[in-house]
Amino acid sequence: MTTESRRFEAEVAQVLHLVTHSLYSHKEIFLRELVSNASDALDKLRFAAIAAPALLDGDAELRIEIEVDRDARTLTIRDNGIGMTCDEVVENIGTIARSGTRRFLEALSADQRTGTSLIGQFGVGFYSAFIVADRVRLLTRRAGEPAAAGVEWSSDGTAEYTIGPAERPARGTEVVLHLKEGEDEFLEDWTLRGLVSKYSDHIGFPIRMRKPLDGKPGEEWETVNHASALWTRPKTELKDEDYKAFYQSLSHDMGEPLAWTHNRIEGSQSYTLLLYVPGAMPMDALFAGRDERHGLKLYVRRVFIMDAAQELLPPWLRFVRGVVDSDDLPLNVSREILQENRLVAQIRSATIKRVLDLLEKLASDEADKYARFWRAFGNVLKEGIAEDWSNRERLLKLARFASTAGEGATQSVSLDDYIARMKPGQDEIYYLTADSHAAAAGSPQLEALRARGIEVLLLSDRIDEWMTAHVHEYAGKRLRNVAKGEIDFGKLGEAPGRPATDPDAARPLVERLKSLLDGQVADVRVSQRLTDSPACLVLGEGQMALHLTRLLKQAGHEVPETRPTLEVNPAHPLLARLAAETDEARARDLARVVHDQAVLAEGGQLEDPSGFVRRVNALIAPAA
């Protein structure tokens, strides 16, 4: 290998430019990121050394060292971990093959102020060094390789980097930061110790710095962190600040967690759980799809095994961050073994239970915090309502919805709240799905229920139609979509001020509408739902909502054709005018207007908007 200059991959160059020129707040996160990388390298070596003890090569004391050279204005972060080969340096530093990088760039470009909270979440934490350094050198040698296999990498954070051979007697990685002018605070011993205490105190390896001697770094090293995994320490020793600092290091989130639970379980198997609910949706969970890697950090007897053990959490809890440390799983556990291991199934079940316990306590004791949680994660939790039959009742109890009894689109009504307010004679939970809150709140399907003072839940998230298809009842009460099927309003009493409709008298109007709208609707019938509007569209019990049908079609899916039933209010002046109209062409226009108004009220799109405008103008012109 010879020393050569290479250009960064285009996306890396973009990351470097944004990091170097745009991120000024929370500059100190660079130290958190580099120490975290060093800790990962030590974890990987400790795991690899289980099968190949020779990798330790007589140096079994795994550690991280932070060293300052004030004269040279350099800050060095060093570890004796797994190290890298030349190819690994090029892959990990010179290029980024992760799809998350583009998402990181999009998020960072859209709101550069949040950059420091994003930088660690997409595997680009190393580049945070360029926030404070105008040149970075990386020296590394892979464990088990000879001293001559060392690699030196350097860059000034612009378009190119240099890579070449280097004699490295010791394994591991050393990152040397040549600090920019004005960054002298990171040459101060007390500043660095404070940052280690703030961000990295929980790291399970000793972080060492030179012991001060006469105000200057001496020759003797001392450990400046607790050097024990936080989750292994007794809860009585830990403060909220400790848990919050560990969360920030674990999740690369500058914000605080909303809640957490820390449990040691002993019995047929022993393990420790430390689980966090973030204060806001993590960017990697927000941008990631259900199939992308997510999960908890898995340790076995304090040995790091994998970073995202999906098997320990269902996809509908992918926002949860935390650590699972098992005493009983094998150290050589693989993803395939995780999928089949009985102990893993027990841990997964316990993890779900602990998270739901935490959320129930939050909902019961801290309603404002829970409302904040639901705004951030409600749609993800709804996936569990549809998918997880065993936990469906608990999840439904945690769900919150907007309703006709609330204000605006606020999702604050629980199903228990709804049941407590049900009217005499009411034995069903009524709800309506739509593609927006405004469309749901203004739907004509609500009129008869509103007139009777019956509360209706308003569901306007895209997932709601899919979720409700899997939920038929809660606490013994049937859930009923008011826009589907026929509803027996008789048991709810008469609507005040609504004149009774004689079905026989309305039959000629219904038959005429069927003829005029032939092929556009499945049927026409007199409505029990309407009190003020002329008409509405109603689906069969098993049919897919029209707004979901439109969404799937726009996404390129083939969807069976759905033809709704048109329900009409014969007492409405527009229908009375249609019944009395003798001109067939004008009657057809009136029928089309009635139908198109029902489509618009449902939130749909007209096939012929200009035709609708023409017909409306023609009908109102004589009255002008």
Describe the protein's architecture and organization.
By secondary structure, the protein is of the alpha+beta class. It has four domains: 4-226, Heat Shock Protein 90, CATH 3.30.565; 231-369, Ribosomal Protein S5, domain 2 (2-Layer Sandwich); 400-492, Rossmann fold, CATH 3.40.50; 503-623, Four Helix Bundle (Hemerythrin (Met), subunit A) (Up-down Bundle). Helix content is 37%, strand content 20%. It is built from 21 helices and 22 strands. The strands form four sheets. It has a nine-stranded mixed beta sheet with strand order 1-6-5-4-7-3-2-8-9, with helices on one face. Strand 5 (150-155) and strand 6 (160-166) form a beta hairpin. Helix 19 packs antiparallel against helix 20 (584-601). The termini are far apart.
Please supply descriptive tags for the structure shown above:
9-stranded mixed β-sheet; 22 strands; Rossmann fold; Ribosomal Protein S5, domain 2; 5-stranded mixed β-sheet; alpha+beta; Heat Shock Protein 90
Topology (elements, then pairings):
Elements (H helix, E strand, L loop, with lengths): L3 E4 L2 H13 L6 H23 L12 E6 L4 E6 L6 H9 L5 H11 L4 H4 L14 E9 L8 E6 L4 E7 L5 E8 L9 H11 L7 E7 L2 E8 L16 H12 L7 E7 L5 E7 L5 H5 L8 E5 L2 E7 L11 E6 L8 H6 L1 H24 L1 H21 L4 H7 L3 E2 L11 H6 L7 E6 L3 H5 L5 H5 L5 E3 L4 H5 L4 E2 L2 E5 L21 H14 L6 E4 L8 E4 L7 H9 L10 E4 L4 H8 L3 H18 L7 H12 L4
pLDDT < 50 stretches: 96-101, 111-123
The rounded Rg comes to 32 Å
**Largest pleated sheet:** 9 strands, mixed
**N- to C-terminal separation?**
88 Å
CATH topology of the largest domain: Heat Shock Protein 90
